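Re-run requested by the PI after the first attempt was lost when the workstation crashed. Everything re-entered from the original request form. Ligand of interest: uridine-diphosphate-N-acetylglucosamine.
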Amino acid sequence: MKIMIIVGARPNFMKAAPLLSAIRTRNARESGHSAPAESIHAYLVHTGQHYDLTMSDSFFSDLALPKPDECLAVGSASHAMQTAEIMRRFEQVVLREMPDVLTVVGDVNSTVACALVAAKITYDAGGKRPLIAHVEAGLRSFDRSMPEEVNRVVTDHLADLLFTTERSGMENLLREGIASEKIHFVGNTMIDCLLASKENAERSTILAQLRLRNGHPGNGSRNGARRYALLTLHRPSNVDDRDTFLRILQGVEELSSSCPILFPVHPRTAKRITEYGLESRFVSANGQASGNGSNGHFMSAGIHLLGPLGYLDFLCLMQHAVMVITDSGGIQEETTCLGIPCVTVRENTERPVTVSEGTNMLSGTSSDRIRLAIAAQTRRNPSLSAPEMWDGQAASRIVDILAEKACKVMTVQ
Ligand code: UD1
């Protein structure tokens, strides 16, 4: 049985890694049985939506991902051009490899593009095509101005198997008329990855590189690290408009006067900082993880620009931060799992469990509301919480279901 797995952009890699690992584990387990089930051949396709060393390659090494079987190398372009180019190149791969299952993860352009190709492809005159599985199905921000929301809705309505991370996902899909037998509440593969990587992340040297190792807990520090917060911003609605971007920066500046804020910058955001002439609002704008701020000894107050970080370095920084301020989807979930207070500078979240059961608080993008949310989160005691099924086993549940469903389809055909 062949399962094709698609990755394309940075947030896909940590969702796919646990699936590949669960397939390896299942194959090893089955080979030991007296009547082993058919082994699964995993076939990894990288669309190349993200392609830089820091946005893609470093994740392969950090997550011990195998080299992709196929690289489509599509690169950056407008939404329509990028989606169309992925579809054009991917169609040839599906027709040649004829997988039994196509697995797409998350909500990026690569997700919807590959699902759309598979939904319309036929391997033979009987109309055979791969089963389409969507991992992280059902999340809804109810904001169609987000490209990701469009990708989610379309992908979910094309998929044959929908794997959800939280109960709201199941409810959204049922409300949209998707048959309940297609939906499986399995947990969160990104959390599988986080739980499997925590120890490795502790071995990261990033705290030492940034001179944030304290050596002793106390004085408001977290587990031997000096006190700092972490900021990430990349959403077009937040950084592609100068006024909005500026309002967000003004909202976090008060915190930065008493606590250094580390800001690993996404390429889109880096471009905007230059274009809008905002460099002077940051302590160090060299784009390097030099981390010595202005005094070369201990990171000073202010917002410190860093280049994009690898998975383990970023996880290490999240684990020790006093707070994370972000507009990312995945980071809301990761901070919930780590028990780190999170302020999400968006009006909505497609991941409501991070607010109801986790450590997340929505602030919107007005400076005042961001300041209030930061103040409230500063007073909050970090607390560990694990939403239902976020137990590190989501990928093995998914692989078992895929194997069973694909086997049934193959038997019928
Ligand atoms: C994409 C996803 C978003 C996800 C984000 C994580 C979609 C619609 N959006 O947004 O959901 O949260 O990835 O980063 O799929 N660039 C580089 N190097 C790279 C990749 C991109 O420099 O390796 C630059 C390019 O100039 C590009 C810009 O970053 O124009 C944005 O990249 P793009 O893939 O279009 O979307 P993201 O904003 O990264």
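Saved to the shared folder this time. The mean pLDDT is 93.
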